[in-house]
Amino acid sequence: MDLDKAIGERIANERTRLGLKQREVAEAVGLTTGQVGKMEVGLRKLTIPILALLHDKLNMSIGYLVTGESSELVKQDSSITAIEKVKKLQDELIKKDEEINWLKEHARDLAFILKSQSDPDVDTSKPIKKGRRQKNTA
After folding, report:
1. By residue range, what is the domain housing residue 37?
2. Beta-carbon neighbour count of residue 11 at 10 Å?
């Protein structure tokens, strides 16, 4: 089925469910009765501004009009998507936190390696004491 026709049928179904006449829908969204009729049979494309007006003025479900799913299903799908997004963000934060902890744990060693490359007096044979290796004094 053509998408415009399917959306038009859903608009007609919602209008009927709400107990409205085409004239009432037309007045609410700023169209003529003929334009609403054409929209309901798929001969006139639904625009985003008209979709928004159908929702705002007549409380028609945008999710239902566009997808054909009941508003409860759309809400459930949205919440699942939101939950998945939160879990993904949590996983990313945990990974970043692990990377930060690793860097903190190894910061002294990394600093020592960098310093030893530029300072020949650093004794690399002795272990790090209090965050520093001892300089050669001999």
Report:
1. 3-68
2. 25
